[in-house]
Design goal:
With about 270 residues, this protein is an all-alpha fold. The protein is built from 13 helices and no strands. The mean pLDDT is about 85. Part of the ABC transporter complex CysAWTP (TC 3.A.1.6.1) involved in sulfate/thiosulfate import. Probably responsible for the translocation of the substrate across the membrane.
Amino acid sequence: MPGFRLSLGFTIFYLTLIVLIPLSAVFLKTFTLSWEGFWNAVTSARVLASYKLTFGASLLGAFINVIFGGIVAWVLVRYEFPGKRIIDALVDLPFALPTAVAGITLTALYSANGWFGRFLEGTLGFKVAFTPVGVVVALTFIGLPFVVRTVQPVLEDAERELEEAAASLGANALQTFTRVVFPTILPSLMTGFALAFARATGEYGSVIFIAGNMPMVSEITPLFIITKLEQYDYAGATAIAVVMLVVSFIMLLTINLLQAWARGKSGK
């Protein structure tokens, strides 16, 4: 195509300026540590606990969003009801809402004297705010739009004739969904999962208020990085950031490979 070399050159230059140079700076700063210093920085008990909470809560939140975000997308595409446009607009609220505001709002709702927390903690004895459960709630909240907005256009473009053909051949509703609809939306569900997971691993503002930030219990890795920076331990902060970057990249690469496999299989 005409202009390919110019476009490719601009793309590489832009990605280098915006992505590669900042990431390279993180690695270069980490290399100022010795191997022993790096290992001690990224494997302390407190850091390992923050990894477990951050990645575990991110995976759980993304998985929850795949299920319920898929349901929301299905309802918005397949049904007409009063207030549909309002609900469709509310899906994008986590995009527009400042993360600190989201964190304060969720804390107010799920604290012991909040609307939801008063019932959950006072009646059921189930505490949400200032626990790892609160972290999952916050990460689920900010990740929902990624799943809905990736699945929704696929459902809108899906061929209804295939579902009608399956029904005419004797398939019930469950068989039609599992054998016709689900293979079609599976790649988009995996894309939404990857986006929600990636967004959740780096989330800070909406989590620090509801988490309680108790070491070894509800302290997320981004907060630990901020703590290191406040202590002027820049090499230690970048070392932890490198671990998060590598783990996130491996998981996203795995998800993308699975997504490509699912698309290839559905194409066949």
